[in-house]
Amino acid sequence: MERIPDKIDSKFRFVLLAAERAEQMLRGARPKIDMGDLKPTRIAMKEISNDLVEWDYGPAPMIEEEFDVEEEEELESE
Questions:
Q1: N or C: which end of the chain has fewer CB atoms below 10 A?
Q2: Among residues 37, 52, 38, which one has the least CA distance to residue 3?
């Protein structure tokens, strides 16, 4: 297994990121490093280990109370 960068908090997240990047390569994205005949998953893991792939956690999930207020406002405006 590749070295997991410090900014990745778990092996699970590392695997998710590698799977997403490998899927991008299968759909036509070019690898950021030349690894010869390795499979896309191994290339993706190496790219992530070398901090060549940018990622973030995305937006924070909505709290139910916030959702209920927004939903009510939408219903009232209709």
A1: C
A2: 52
pLDDT value, residue 3: 80
List pLDDT tens digits, range 48-76: 999 898 888 777 777 766 556 566 666 66
Query: In the structure encoding, which two tokens stand for residue 74, read together?
Result: 């939408």
Contacts of residue 50, Cβ cutoff 8 Å, sequence gap at least 6: 33
Q: Give the torsion sign (CA, 33, 34, 36, 40).
A: positive
CA atoms within 13 A on the CB side of 15: 4
Whether domain 11-77 has CATH 3.90.940: the reply is yes
For residues 19-39, one letter each, b for 16 or more C-beta atoms within 10 angstroms of the residue's C-beta and e for the rest, the string is eebbeebeeeeebbeeeeeee
The CA angle 58-32-42, to the nearest 5 degrees, is 85
E strand segments, 1-78: none
